[in-house]
Design a protein that fits this description.
Helix content: 25-40%
Order of helices and strands: HHHHHHHHEEEEEEEEEEEEH
Oligomer: single chain
CATH superfamily of the largest domain: Glucose Permease (Domain IIA)
Distance between the termini: 63 Å
Structural class: alpha+beta
CATH topology of the largest domain: Glucose Permease (Domain IIA)
Shape: elongated
CATH class of the largest domain: Mainly Beta
């Protein structure tokens, strides 16, 4: 076993235990996709599933992770305007580093130069502009270590060289398996609209406790004990104490955004890391915890600190959630009026 693989195997196996690989045989804030786009994706997943034996939920998870990386790095991971898949493979990786023809589509010469491009459409060409070829090529690389759960996860790590990528794909596969469809969309405001609350844009304000830093989120002030709700479909990634955020929960959605809820007075007791949540589901309650050892309370008025971070592959960057909060608040109010 190579040293690189040995160093990472424990972390990969820990992710398997936490999230599982739903749907694998034992032998995705972007605008919601349109119905015709979803239909094309389903057809793509079904075709590649036949070729690989992988469940569509796993193929959809790989595809969605790739799509989120392409959205985060549009200049270095450009996608075709008509692309169905989110997969991006650099030309040299596709055709082989020493291949004199970066646009090579001949499977035999690509294999000779140790490229990863393969024919997934059955036209005897390995074409980077072909959706089936792109998704099939990634799936085939990942399956080099086997299709059982542990081997597949190691294959993910070997391909991406990034434990975060493995975790994301496992999370996304679990979400697709739970809801049984590729179009999982919808959001909710984090507090009940019939509660008394107030908020404004506080992004970038200075903070000094524990050292100077900027405020990476929006504070929503409300009474102690007001329910805090998930804003998205997602998976609980972390739950517990943070000396800055107090009792906090982090939830990952299919757009690879990390939703951070801090200064809670408590959690919904049955909720644990790895659980799937829905928009509007209660996850905790407004409080004033944080700025100290576990259990520290009352150093500031009760409020929810809400932050959003985008995964860019190796790092995560915070961005101002205020526009999202205003939109979700507005959309939910409209929806309530319609259903009265």
């Amino acid at each position: 076993m190579r040293p690189r693989l040995r160093r990472s195997i424990n972390g990969v196996l820990a992710l398997i235990l936490a999230f599982g690989l739903c749907g694998i045989p034992s032998v995705a804030t972007a605008a919601p996709a349109q119905p015709d786009q979803i239909k094309k994706r389903v057809q793509l997943y079904d075709r590649v599933s036949v070729l690989t034996g992988l469940d569509w939920t796993v193929l959809a998870a790989i595809d969605q992770y790739e799509r989120t990386m392409s959205r985060a790095h549009p200049k270095t991971r450009p996608l075709r305007e008509t692309a169905v898949t989110g997969v991006y493979i650099p030309p040299t990786e596709w055709s082989g580093v020493l291949n004199p023809d970066e646009g090579d589509t001949e499977p035999a010469s690509i294999r000779f130069f140790q490229g990863i491009g393969r024919d997934g459409s059955g036209d005897r060409l390995a074409d980077r502009n072909q959706d089936e070829d792109l998704l099939f090529s990634v799936a085939a690389e990942v399956l080099r270590y086997g299709s059982v759960r542990e081997d597949f996860a190691i294959g993910l790590w070997e391909y991406y060289q990034n434990t975060r990528a493995v975790q994301r794909i496992l999370q996304f596969a679990k979400l697709y398996k739970t809801f049984g469809k590729p179009d999982i969309t919808g959001n909710a405001f984090p507090l009940p609209l019939n509660s008394v609350y107030s908020f404004r844009s506080t992004w970038g304000n200075s903070r000094s406790w524990g050292g100077y830093r900027i405020h990476e989120g929006t504070d929503i002030f409300a009474e102690q004990g007001v329910p805090v709700r998930s804003t998205c479909y997602g998976i609980v990634e972390i739950k517990g104490w943070n000396r800055y955020g107090g009792w906090r929960i982090g939830i990952r959605d299919l757009n690879n955004l990390y939703h951070y809820y801090a200064h809670l007075s408590g959690f919904e007791k049955t909720l644990k890391a790895g659980d799937v949540v829905r928009p509007g589901q209660v996850i905790g309650w407004v409080g004033s915890s944080g700025y100290g050892r576990p259990g520290t309370q009352g150093k500031f008025p009760p409020h929810l600190h809400y932050g959003v971070y985008r995964d860019r592959g190796l790092v995560e960057w915070a961005f101002d959630p205020y526009p999202l909060l205003k939109r979700w608040e507005r959309d939910e109010r409209k929806s309530l009026k319609v259903h009265r």
